[in-house]
Amino acid sequence: MPHIPHPLRSEQVVILGAGPCGLACADELQRLGHRAWTLLETAPEAGGLATSVIDPAGFTWDMGGHVVFSHFGEFDRLLAELFTADELLHHDRSSYVRFRDGWVPYPFQRHLHHLPAEDAEACVHDLLLACQRRGDELPAGADFATWLQAMYGSALVERFFGPYNAKVWAMTPEQMASSWVAERVAPVDADAVLAAFSGTAPPVSKWGPNSIFAFPARGGTGEIWRRLAARLGSGYLRTRARVVTVDPAARSLTLADGEQIGFGHLVATGPLDQLAAMTEGAPEPVRAAAGRLRHTTVAMVGLGYRAPTTDERSWLYFPQPSVPFYRATNFSKYAPANVPGSDTHAFSAWMTETSMPPGTALDHGGLIRDCDQALRRHGLVLEDAPLASAHLELIPYAYPVPTLDRDVALAAVVPWLEARGIYPRGRFGTWQYEIGNMDHAVKMGIDIARRLVNGTAEELLAPASGAVAVAGGRA
């Protein structure tokens, strides 16, 4: 049985990072009546990867394509406490994949009857072969490319899964594990695919936990976390507080200005590789394992146009190498208040995401130009629509990559930290993409607070190892 610490009495809990996980942890500590906590955030405001910004032209942008949906009652309760019913807009997801000169409904693999005849024939042929072989066991630790081939066949991998995943992850599927897939990649039934060609299949039902999603009527996704931070009170949350060293032996941490802060337990929601690097006394194998963890950097380019919002779709996927971004989000459709004056008759807004390896030299002006041209070229924006705003946000740590050796690395790092009262949580604390959504982050923050105060086991993570009891996530 994993060790669960005794309930806290007067021990100080320090939380690093005021993103969804850190804020939820602090909120739960407060709810449980444990007031001895401090929340430290490097940035000027709370929200982490889920912040929103308003550009000089009056357009609101998120740090990527966030939508609000939930696997957990705790997240639902939080939203109900922070928002009235009319302060959240609700949408049926409408997503498509750009393929050749047309659009294929998402998930791509369930809509092969929308492909040109030659492509459809090849994809169905290889899919049927793959289905016949699904009884064969994949080798232990099979990479993602092998899993895709076994699940969907060569033609689908060549036309969609291979190029799309290479764009999203900024590495090839051969370099990635397959253990993370869970509900992130839609399964497909061969009989249903064939029935769709004959017109005898029932309409394809919505797939995935985000088939219906919510979005704040004003303020973008960041409004959720602004409200949660506000109810915590200013005495406990400190912004512009960057931690540079953690000393587990002394139970203290040092800020960039030299201030030292003691802790009884440390909940760290920032990147695990950075945490290991700044933790004094971490042995070389732990540091080396953390250094092997990989992540993507994403450039969010928000493009606002002086043209009405007419597209009814939610977001669109682009596997083509000729398009810089892998996804484009119809951001003015999410909420009218995302454009100046909430006037979607006069304005539209598209948010694009381009993934790259960390440290990539980026031509900001060139990327903005290429994204704008791609939106126009593929018919999302009229050729003569005036550009009203172009805003770029570089997100250095966007997504943790489930590489082949990720789990081995985590097994070397997480138990060592937890044995010293340091609990990595959140998207980049656990480095688990499969539990990297906002609702997962909130659940982790609440669970670790309950564990520290009451000694109860966490429901999403196995405490001693950081292993996941997978609940799934957003596709």
Keywords:
475 residues; alpha/beta; FAD/NAD(P)-binding domain; Polyamine Oxidase, Chain A, domain 2; 3 domains; 7-stranded mixed sheet; 5-stranded parallel sheet; 19 strands; 32% helix; globular; disordered C terminus
Shape: globular
The strand line-up of the biggest sheet is 7-6-15-16-17-14-18
Helix content: 25-40%
At the fold tier of CATH, the topology name of the largest domain is: Polyamine Oxidase, Chain A, domain 2
How much is the average pLDDT? 90
- The class by helix and strand makeup works out as alpha/beta
Give the number of domains.
3
Number of strands: 19
Low-confidence stretches: 6-10, 463-475
CATH architecture of the largest domain: Alpha-Beta Complex
N/C terminus separation: 33 Å
Supply the CATH class of the largest domain: Alpha Beta
Q: Strand percentage, roughly?
A: 15-25%
Q: What is the H level of CATH, i.e. the homologous superfamily of the largest domain?
A: Protoporphyrinogen oxidase, mitochondrial, domain 2
- Count of discrete alpha- or pi-helical segments spanning 4 or more residues: 14
**Biggest β-sheet strands, sense, barrel:** 7 strands, mixed
Radius of gyration over C-alpha positions, nearest whole angstrom = 23 Å
Give a short overview.
The protein has 475 residues and is of the alpha/beta class. It contains 14 helices and 19 strands. It has helices at residues 20-31, 73-82, 117-132, 144-152, 154-169, 190-198, 222-232, 272-278, 284-291, 331-334, 364-377, 406-418, 427-430, 438-454, and strands at residues 13-16, 37-40, 52-54, 60-62, 88-92, 95-99, 102-105, 212-216, 237-238, 243-247, 252-255, 260-262, 265-268, 295-305, 315-317, 327-330, 348-356, 387-400, 422-424.
